[in-house]
Amino acid sequence: MTDKLDFIDLKAQYAALKPRINERMQRVLDHGQYIMGPEVKELEQQLAAHTGARHCITVASGTEALLISLMALGIKPGDEVITTPFTFAATAEMIVLIGAVPVFVDVEPDTCNIDASLIEAKVTPKTRAIMPVSLYGQVPDMSAINTVAARHGLAVIEDAAQSFGATYQGQKSGNLSTLGCTSFFPSKPLGCYGDGGAVFTSDDALAQACREIRVHGQSARYTHTRVGVGGRMDTLQCAVVLAKLERFEWELAQRLALGARYAELLADVPGLRRLAVRGDRDCVWAQYTVFVEHRTELQAALLALGIPTAVHYPKPVHHQPAYAHLCCPECCPVSTLVSTQVMSLPMSADLTHAQQDRIVAALRQCMR
Fold first, then answer.
1. Going by DSSP bridges, is the β-strand pair 155-159/179-183 parallel, antiparallel, or unpaired?
2. Helices and strands in the chain, H and E counts
3. Helix (H, G, I), strand (E, B), or coil: what is residue 338?
4. Using 50, 70 and 90 to split pLDDT, how confident is the model at 329?
């Protein structure tokens, strides 16, 4: 039987960081401040410094980061938020959860990111915000998005769950708009060992709102100034991310290099199309995603050779039963098309060249 590769090799990462991760976690176990312990503030300071944003507010998950951002902006039932249907459901889910209406804009066929040129046509008097998604590790055209937002007095929330560490026109993902939200889910470019996330902003009032909302709306102990949620990131998870930050710049460099090597190795594979990366930004490859035909059969053939794959995402949000009433099935044809073609290959900072060669050789064999 062929040995199966890991889709994301978290075990190799832990082996490299084991002493520091164990030390960081043991420190929390020793001081016992499991909620809002000193590691929370320490991590927020380091993450803010990394992005260049004035404020970082750690939260319980990337999903919670979106919810808290929408609440901080005062998005109300009936308000509209423009976003993409080609994303994980959490993006639209949080808009719907607070009673607002997601308005879907189609994606670019070569990046799968929201098509900024289509956004302005969807702005109405009810529009309050734009929520673009930085998919697969690459930021969309935030300059164009911010220009539209400024023209109409809208806030922009970057869903940067897959792109922490990526750059756009010299600035870091998460610090490109009114608010930036990221996730520390274990498979993300910077992940913890459970759920975790963060909100970034340089707006002092929004930062204060986010901090209060994440602790049940408290401005002081048992003083509930606003409606909030239980949205804190626990101290142990902050400790894990602090340890991982110590080699994060190396990991980013590895991701960029492995992405470039994938592109070179796959350049002449017939029947395969690679994701485009725009010249004014990079991609940290949260997933290394390609476009293929006959995906189901190809995935089965690759798995038989020990190569796992994944699909992000097999059905756009506007085709999901819970959200289908928000948009006609034909409203975003590019999203519908690419959802049948995208396939993600094994990717992590610890992927070796030998493993990458094996993946590409298997692809060539299965696509002949």
1. parallel
2. 11, 14
3. helix
4. confident
Is the pLDDT at 2 greater than 80? The verdict is no
Name residue 230's beta-bridge partners.
Answer: 215
For residues 242 and 26, give the distance between their C-alpha atoms in angstroms, rounded to a whole number: 13
CA distance 14 to 23: 13
Distance CA 267, CA 112 (A): 19
Assign 3-class secondary structure to 259-298. HHHHHHHHCCCCCEEECCCCCCECECCCCEEEEECCHHHH
DSSP assignment letter at 146: H
> What's the DSSP call for residue 8?
S
Rounded to whole angstroms, the Cα distance separating 293 from 3 reads 26
Helices (H), 177-247: 204-213, 235-245
Which single residue is written with the structure tokens 């070569």? 110
Q: Contact at 8 Å (CB) between 329 and 313?
A: no
pLDDT of 72 > 90? The answer is yes
> What per-residue confidence (pLDDT) applies to 50?
98
For the segment 29-51, what is each residue's pLDDT rounded down to a tens digit?
999 999 999 999 999 999 999 99
Q: Could you report the per-residue pLDDT of 241-280, keeping only the tens digit for each?
A: 999 999 999 999 999 999 999 999 999 999 999 999 999 9
Instruction: Give the strand order in the sheet containing 288-292.
Output: 272-274, 288-292, 342-345
Q: Which two tokens stand for residue 175?
A: 């610090």
What are the φ and ψ backbone dihedral angles of 359, each rounded to 5 degrees?
Answer: -60, -45
- Average pLDDT value over all residues in the chain: 97
Go through the domains of the chain in sequence order and give each one's CATH number: 10-245 (3.40.640.10), 248-366 (3.90.1150.10)
Give φ, ψ of 228 to 5 degrees. -135, -165
Cβ-contact 51, 63 below 8 angstroms: no
- Fill in the DSSP letter of residue 226: S
CA distance 103 to 128: 11
Residue 217 one-letter amino acid: G
DSSP string of 156-185, one letter each residue: EEEE-TT-TT-EETTEETTSSSSEEEEE--
